[in-house]
């Protein structure tokens, strides 16, 4: 009965126009250790926000959902267009399909901007040019007006980045590539910040297939707030200043 009470409170506060984080804070104050989990609050807040009225569990029919029907894909697309900030688990709860299915729909049908390189595929200039095009589309979708103001792109001096086809793509999309010191491969936030933390999170875990790996990666980054990414950029500023002091020398061990 306790979970029904919690859902009723979440529904009431959602209808008052409060966001999920505010609801979490207020419920932690009232319920203390008995407060429902953050994921549970965010899940039901999303459901009520998008029109759900019942606070009861859905009946289990025992029948698997046909995840990739056009109706399901259209439903996911409609919800995503209404609120692009929804997380994968919230979409899963709203639509009534598994996280894996949501991942497949986003990637295969709705153009998820995350790129997963196929096993055995070589990264060439042509391949990198397609990544730049995806980046342009993502910026156009999520940061309206940013393309017209100009985009500064930080990339190292890998041959594929300097290939003719990649440079042509940069010019076509209106990106400006920042000058990167030839002997400092340690100025990429993905290499010194994002990937090491991701590896720590995934270390020791076992996955049965590629989809489970993709889910774990998405869950890792979905759990990070804006400050996490801002901290990575702050470290980039520190490393860049250090690189200038060392006249472009290698600084990987610098914190």
UniProtKB/TrEMBL annotation:
Q: Name one GO molecular function term.
A: nucleic acid binding
Q: List the InterPro entries hit by this protein, alphabetically.
A: RNaseH_sf, Tc1-like_DDE_dom, Transposase-MT_Hybrid
What's the domain of life for this entry? Eukaryota
Where does the Tc1-like transposase DDE domain start and stop, copy by copy?
122-213
Against PANTHER family, the record matches this protein to:
MARINER MOS1 TRANSPOSASE-LIKE PROTEIN (PTHR46060)
Q: What is this protein called?
A: Tc1-like transposase DDE domain-containing protein
What is the taxonomic lineage of the source species? Eukaryota, Metazoa, Ecdysozoa, Arthropoda, Hexapoda
